[in-house]
Design brief:
single chain, mainly alpha, 3 helices
Length: 79
């Protein structure tokens, strides 16, 4: 089968969220969209989100990636 145009393999839910999110995106929103799109394009097996408060991880999760997402927790202060 020959395909002349790129085929988007993103889940329908991520496309729906992207289409109904007000433009322009903020930096964190754009990072979430790009992360999920890159995971599809690269056939990634895992997404590692580096964040201190979890805000970026929530935006990545909003676009429902098809692969697991890991967010390492910052170390807790010893008391």
């Amino acid at each position: 089968m020959c395909v002349s145009e790129p085929v988007c393999l993103a889940t329908p839910l991520s496309a729906l969220c992207s289409d109904h999110t007000p433009k322009p995106f903020g930096i964190t929103e754009a990072t979430g969209v790009s992360c999920v799109a890159a995971s599809v394009d690269c056939n990634a097996q895992l997404i590692i989100t580096l964040t201190s408060g979890g805000y970026t991880s929530r935006f990545v999760s909003k676009y429902r990636p098809a692969v697991p997402q890991v967010r390492p927790a910052p170390p807790s202060p010893v008391q």
